[in-house]
Amino acid sequence: MALQTTVRTFRDLDLNFTKNPATKDVASRVGDQAVIRSIRNLVSLSNYEKPFHPEIGSSVRQMLFENATALTAQHLKRAIEDVIKNFEPRVRLKDVVVQIAEDINYFQVSIEFYIQNNASPTTISVFLERVR
What's this model's pTM, rounded to 2 decimal places? Predict the structure, then answer.
C-alpha cells in the first residue's frame, strides 16, 4: 500500500476585489500569501467591525492613541498574540517583537510564525501609527 499525504492549499478572497481575468470572478489569494494577508487584517481589525462576528478583532487601534511607552508596547504585543492565537488556526505563533519610536509615536511590529505544513518560519513587519 502506498502512503498518501494531503497538502492543504489555503485560499482567501483578495480584499482589493480585483477581477480574475479567466473566471471574471473576484480574485483570490492562495497559499502563504492568503495567511499573511489574514494576519495583517486581524491585527488591524477592531472589535465589532466584522459583520456578524463582533468577537473577532483586537484593541490594537485603540492603543495607538496612547503614549508610546514600554508598557504600551507590552500591551500591544499581548493583544497581537491573543488575536492571532484565537482567530488564525492556520499558524503557530513563534514571536512578536514590538519596537517603539517614542519621538514620532509609532510602533514597528515584527510577527514571526509557522504556517501549517511549512517547516520554515515566516516573518512579517507592520508599522503601526495613528492616522488621526
Answer: 0.78
